[in-house]
Amino acid sequence: MVLPDPMRLLLLAAFLLASLHVWANTYRWVDERGRVHYSDTLPPQAVEPAVLDKQGRVLRRNSRAAGAPDKTQAEREAGQERQDRALLSTYVHEGEIDLARERALAQERARLESLQAMLEQVRGRLARIEAEAAGHEKAGRRPPPALLQARGEARDEIARLNALIARSNAAAAQIEARYDAYKRRFRQLKGLLDEPRLSSKTDPPPATAAP
Length: 211
Fold this sequence. Notes:
alpha+beta, 4-stranded antiparallel beta sheet, 4 helices, about 10% strand, disordered C terminus
């Protein structure tokens, strides 16, 4: 009879607890020095706080205090200036933004690979449990309760791991969107515009009206 590995279940539980941050809201906020931060908690001293969706877009902006008056245009511009200064002080050239994005993505990819490896292990265990249960049924016996419980637990683990994998993929997409936004703004501030496309000798000649 196949029973769940207690150590494996403990490791899975620990991993699930460590991965809970991907379930939380993501906040973008500015500190008193004008540096932009992203986190799953919002500190009381946060300035210009905003809640982001999975693609890094602003879902809503939070007031600094309940009943606080709306910011004036000057305050909004000052907040943008602080964010811009933070961006320019953090990155010297746009290649550094690409490197930072790759580092962040590498961490998420490692988490995703770990989740996928765990999923394959649980699927293998479920396959063995299903085979053993089928043997009992083929012999005209009802599978033991412990075996049925193990099958249900394996199925639950697969559902949880699939949910975590979906969250990890969404987190990777959010990282991409976040650093794309950094790079677009950096290029705007530096005056780096995309060069116009040069015509190629292989391009077809422009169409002319028939005589």
